[in-house]
């Protein structure tokens, strides 16, 4: 079996690692790949945005299965390009990927199909956005309609913050065309949870629950990032709530997409707020979350190649996935300055020392090689992940591993999972 993974971040390293662990005979390629994925297979120098180039490579090399990691190629129609050539690929079509590539599309879809979510206003100008935020009351949330690498959401709690946020969208144009339309919503209180499922166009196989930590600083301080840590299970979701989420969100979404003529196959990710009124969808993603994927894949007890082939062919042939007991954690080690202009170029020390810890795995998210050494080049640089009998043990192992890795501009959160443990969570 020849398998191509598209992407070059920590999520894609985790996918390649799992494929190598569970299907060691696979001929594995990763485009464009990274120093991390090269531990598992061959890198292919094709950019994720080059959908035709990727499809051409897959056809030329006789690739049997392609798995898409990041959102950009999905939004550009990479799945359509592959299917037009008769190539097997696991992911949603460009039309179905609008659940992530357009927050306005997703919000209107949810209202149309009765998926629980908050009220909203679509604003094309500063005046409309400001008026909507003041009507909802502060705090309020402003979101770029298009893809913004997880950074296009601003929460405003005061009139001054609202004015500054309006400048970001409509004066500075920080998010470019992605922020030409702005979604304005009331702030929904509660704890945020990631709920992810694999879809074959008709059914959903739920993954274990997980929780992502999006803010850059401890105690959820500072701006949003692509994610600074995650753990599985989420620790704050009951079995009854899981059943409600499956019925009211996941299955209703897949049925609605099919009814609208855009059947969804691939990974469906619902970013949920566990509010006093029940789970509400904050946003949809159409790929594995990063860093949630790294934590979840450590627990998944399946052959991912067989699973993704079945999903790409439209029939999983089952209704559940197997996960190992206990818990898993992913800590993100970043460069100082992220999510703004991050430092770059430092030599990283201690990766193998971290990996020598029991239960610890290290994935590369933004590294390069120079003179045989790993260099910290990205905003998010490494993922230190660990499994344990419970969340407490998994966190201890991950933080011990992270402490063994160093470079001058290293930055990380020190409180991943702390609130969950303090409230007695960790196994549901």
Question: What is the gist of this entry?
Answer:
With 428 residues, this protein is an alpha+beta fold. Helices cover 32% and strands 27% of the residues.
Number of strands: 24
Beta percentage is 25-35%
Low-confidence stretches: none
Rg, alpha carbons: 20 Å
Can you count the helices? 14
Main sheet summary: 6 strands, antiparallel
Look at the helices and sheets and give the structural class.
Answer: alpha+beta
| Overall average pLDDT | 95
How much helix is in the residues? 25-40%
Tell me the distance between the termini: 36 Å
Shape: globular
Top keywords for this entry?
globular, alpha+beta, 24 strands, five-stranded parallel β-sheet, single chain, 428 residues, six-stranded antiparallel β-sheet, 14 helices
Describe this structure in words.
This protein is α+β, with helices and mostly antiparallel strands. Strands 12, 15, 18, 20, 23 and 24 form a six-stranded antiparallel sheet that branches. The radius of gyration is 20 Å and the shape is globular. The protein has 14 helices and 24 strands. The protein is 32% helix and 27% strand. Helix 1 runs parallel beside helix 10.
